[in-house]
Amino acid sequence: MTEELDAGMLATEIAEHPDALSAPYGGGELGRGRRRKEDAKLVTGQTNWTDNITLPGLLHMAVLRSPMAHARIVSVDVSAALEMPGVIAAYSGADLAAEDGALPCAWPVTPDMVHPDHKPLAVDEVRHVGDGVAVVIARDRYTAADALEAISVEYDQLPAVVDMEAALAEGSPLVHSDKGTNKCFTWPFAAGDDYEATRAKADVVVTRRFRQQRVLPTAMEPRGVVVAPIAAADEYTVYSATQIPHILRVMLALVTGIGEHKIRVIAPDVGGGFGSKLNVYAEEVLALVVARKLGRPIKWTESRSEGYQATIHGRDQIQDIEVSATKDGKLLGLKVELLADMGAYLQLVTPGVPILGAFMFPSIYKMDSYTFSCTGVFTTKTPTDAYRGAGRPEATYAIERIMDELAAELGMDPLELRRRNWIKHEEFPFDSICGLTYDSGNYEAATAKAEQMFDMTALRREQAERRERKDPIQLGIGISTFTEMCGLAPSRVLGSLSYGAGGWEAAQIRMLPTGKVEVVSGATPHGQGHHTSWSQIVADALGVPFEDVEVITGDTDSSPKGMDTYGSRSLVVGGVAIHKATGKVIEKARRIAAHLLEAAEGDVEFHGGTFSVKGSPEAKLSIQEIALATFAAHNLPDGMEPTLDSDYVYDPENFSFPHGTHLCAVEIDTETGFTKIRKYVCVDDIGKIINPVIVEGQVHGGLAQGIAQALYEEAIYDAEGNLTTGTMVDYLIPSAADLPHFDTGRTETPATSNPLGVKGVGEAGTIASTPAVVNAVVDALRPFGINDIDMPASPERVWRLLHPGGQRREASGTVAYGGVSTSTTSGGAA
Amino acid sequence: MTRVSMKVDGVVYEDDVEPRRLLTHHLRDGLGRVGTPIGCDTSNCGACTVLIGGESVKSCSVLAVQADGEEITTIQGLSDGDWHPVQKAFQQHHGLQCGYCTPGMILATVDLLKNNPSPTEEEVRHGLEGNLCRCTGYQNIVKAVLSAAAEMRGEQPHPGSFRDADDKTGVSA
Ligand code: FES
Ligand code: FES
To answer: Virtual CA dihedral for B35, B38, B43, B48, nearest 10 degrees?
Structure first.
C-alpha cells in the first residue's frame, strides 16, 4: 500500500492509521499474528535435539584436536587409549585416510582458485588450533573424553600464519606448503564508467580501511551428529544438528562413496544455526565412516569450547574502500578492495561469502562507476563461512560507514547525503550498477517513518546542547539505510557465479481423506517458525482451518527434495513453492468439483475453501468433501488421476531486495568509554508478510547479533595462532542486560518478483544494525577529532581513542556533522 | 561410584554415579530427563537451568553427588497438564525461536518471579543475565516475563504486549 506514497503522504497515513500495516490481507490468514505451533514442545521440554537421541548399543565419539596452530604430525599413537576399559576403537587420520574422503567446497569462485585438500582428520599436518587429529569411540561420553588423553601425538611445530597482509607478503610461511602461496583467489568486478576517469572528476575523495572482525556464530545448541547404520545393507540414518539435511545427504554420498539412496539424513529439532550449521563438517563424515566400520550407532556432540575451534567462524575481512563525489554530495565512484580470511581450509561456501557481498557495496545508491576486487587468504585459523548475512553485512557496514564519513567531509547531514543519492521510489524497477534488478522499494517512506519514530529533531538538539556544554556524556546518532539481496536464488544466477548447486525449493501438498492437509517443505527450520507460517499460507490458499495443516520438514525420507534454509530464502523461495503447489491442488479439485456438480469447469468458483457454480450458489462442495470424493475415486472425470496431491519446485526469477532505515542513538561516557544504546529505531520493508509476530522476532534477533558485532564480540587469535577467546567466559555473547529495547516499524512495498509479494526477513536486522551503531559511536566522538573506531567499540577502545597516550582529547565544540577540512581524507581508527 | 538419591519431577531415583559426574549429565544420560539441554562447558549460558529446592541452579555447575537428597524440577516437571503461566507467556509473547535456551529461561524466570513478583523491565533484564539467548534479542522474553508476572499477581497482562491469539493486528509498532 505504501509504494505509491511519498514521504509526506506516508507520515499522514501513519498518524491516521497506526495499525494500517498490521492488518491482515488475502483470505484472512496472511498477515495474522498467529502464535507458533512449534512452541508447545519447546516450552515443555519435549524437544528432540540431536543430543537427546539414544539408540540400543550407541557409542560415543570424541575428537582429539590440535593444540597448535600449525605443525607437522610426526606420529599418532592410539594404543594406550585402546587398552582403556570401555574404549571400542581409536583411529588416527592416517587410519581413516582411505575412507573419509575430503570435505567439500561447493563454490569455486574462480577457475584458478587454490583449493587445498581438507581431510576430516589431518594426516600429515595440522593447520589450525582445533584441527582434528584422531578419534576415540567409547561406551559413554566420559570414557571417550578420558581416552583422548591417552592418545599421544608428536608434533613438529611450524610457524603460524595469522595476519592476512603478512600472509600475502613475499617469504611468508605457507599454510599449505604444496600450494606455493597463501592466496586462495582474486575475484575482480567492475561496472559502469572507468573508475580512474570518474575519480578524476571528483571534488572529494574519501578513503577508509575498515575491519570486519572475526566473530563466532554461537547457535545455542552446539553441533551434534548421530549415525545409525544397518551395516550389512550399507544403509545409514544420519541425524545431524544441521540447517541443510538435503545438501548434506548429497555431500555425504559424494565424500564417502556410499550411495545417496542408502543415506537418510534427519535434522531433528535444531537449536539455531545462523549459518554455522550450513555446512558439511568433519564430524558428520567421521561418525558415518566409523559407524560403517564398526556397524554400531555413533554419537558425537561438540562441547562449546570445542565448537569455538571446530565450527565455522564469521566475517573477518579487511576492507579498503574509497568513494568519490562532487562537492554537493553526488556520488561518482566507489572502489572496494577486500582481503577475506578463509582460515586454514575452504568449507562449503567459504570463498563465496565475500563475493555475495560484492554486489551489495553500492547498496541503494546511484553512481557512475564501481570497481571491486576481493582476495581470499589462507591463515592458520578456523575456516570462515556464512554467518547471518554472509557478505552483505560486511558490505553494508563499509558503504554506510563511508557515507557518514563523506557527509562529515562535506559538512552535510548524513541523511541528506543519502537522500541525494538513493534510488527514488518512482525509479523502480531499477538496474543497480552491479546489474541486479531491484524490483521494488521505497527508501523515502521507510526513512520518513523511521525519522518520525526516532524524533530526530529533538535528539539532534540534545546532541548540540551536550556538545555545547562539554557534557561528559556525549550523544551520537547513527544512520544505516540498507538493502540486501536475499531469497537465494535464481539457479541460473548461481550458476553464473560458479556456485555448485541451484537455488530452487520444493513443496508438496497432500490432501488427506478427512480433509486435513500435509505440507512437505524442503526448507528446513531451526527456530524460524516455518511450521506456523507454512500453515498460514496453506490455510489461506485452500480455505482450510490453520489447525488442520501439518507441516513436514527436515527428513530426507519424508521430505525428499530440498535446498534447505539459509540466506533469508525460506519464505521467498520455499513459501512461494508451497503457494504455487496449493494452486495446483485447487485446479485439480476444481475439475472434480465441476464433474460432481455437473457444471463447466469455467463456471466453478473457489472461495474460502468452497467450490460453487456461478449463478447457482446452492450448488457447492467444500475442498474437504472433494478430498474425500477423490479418496473414494468412485466418480472422477474420465482419465483423471485419483489424487489432489501436488508438487511444485520453484526456481525464483530474481533475488528479493528487502530494505530499511535504522537509526541509533548512543550515549558515550567520555570518562569511562562506556557506550549505552539510548534508542534504536528500525523500519524494515520486507514486502508482504505472513506473520507479524514471527517477523518482529526475526528482526529483534538480527538486531541483537548485529549490535553484538558492533559493541561486544570478537574472536581473537594471538601471534602463535591460539584462539584466546575460546570459551564463553572470554567471548562475550550479550545478555538481556547488554541490549536495549528496539522500536520496530515496517513499511510495505510488495516484491513484484513473486506472487506472495514477500522479500525475506532473516538477515535484515543483522545487516543494518552494525553500521547504525558504529556510525552513532563515531558521531558522538567526532568533535574530539575521531573519525573511526574498530569493532567491537568496547569501553577500552573508546577510552583509548579519547585518551591518546593517556592525555584526554578536547572536543572542538563546533562540529555539526563534519569537522574535517581537507579535501581528501583517509582516516582510520585514530 | 557413590549412591545418590534425588526426586526429579516428582519421581525418586536412586543411582550409583561417578563422583565427577555433572548433575546435567546425570539428568540427561542417567535419568533420560533430556528436556534440560546443555549449551556450554563453562557455566555461562544457563540453558541447563533447573530448580533445586525451588531455587534456579545451572545443573552443569553442580555434581550429581551434590544433589543427593534434593528435590529437582526440570522443564518437564514444571507443569502437569495446564502450562505454568510463564510457559504460556513465552508462547503468547513469542519469547522463543529455536527454543534451546527456553527451558533455562523459563525456570530462571520462575525463580526470579518468586523472589520479585513485580519486577521492572530493568530488573528482568538483569535478573536473566545468566541465561543467554541467541535468537530473540531478549525483547519478547522480557515482555513474556513482565506479562507472566502480572498474570501471576492476578492483574492484566503487561501493556505493550501482543494481544490475544486471535488478534489480527499482532504487533505493536
Ligand atoms: S550448560 Fe550449564 S550454563 Fe551452559
Ligand atoms: S530461542 Fe534460540 S537461543 Fe533462545
So the answer is: -10
pTM of the model: 0.95
Name the segment(s) of chain A with CATH classification 3.30.365.10: 314-488+654-825, 504-650
Q: A-B interface: how many C-beta pairs under 8 angstroms?
A: 216
- Each residue's pLDDT tens digit, A691-723: 999 999 999 999 999 999 999 999 999 999 999
B134 and A220 within 8 Å at the Cβ level: the answer is yes
CATH label, A50-158+218-310, candidates 3.30.450.20, 3.40.50.2000, 3.90.1170.50, 1.10.20.10 = 3.90.1170.50
B:114-173 residues touching chain A, CB 8 A cutoff: 121, 124-126, 128-142, 162-163, 165, 167-171, 173
DSSP reduced 3-state for B54: coil
Element spanning A288, H or E:
helix A282-294
Q: Is the pLDDT of residue B173 over 60?
A: no
- CATH architecture of the domain B85-152 equals Orthogonal Bundle (1.10)
Q: Which fold has domain B2-77?
A: Ubiquitin-like (UB roll) (3.10.20)
CA angle, A547 as apex, A570 and A523 as ends, to 5°? 15
> Which residue out of B28, B34, B45, B102 has the highest number of ligand 1 atoms within 8 Å of its CB and is therefore the one to mutate?
B45
Contact residues, chain A, for B98 at CB < 8 Å: 219-221, 270-272, 526-527
Cell for A718? Answer: 594471538
CA angle centred on A128, ends A127 and A133, rounded to 5°:
75
- pLDDT tens-digit series, residues A161-203: 999 999 999 999 999 999 999 999 999 999 999 999 999 999 9
B100 touches chain A (CB under 8 A): yes
Here the ipTM equals 0.95
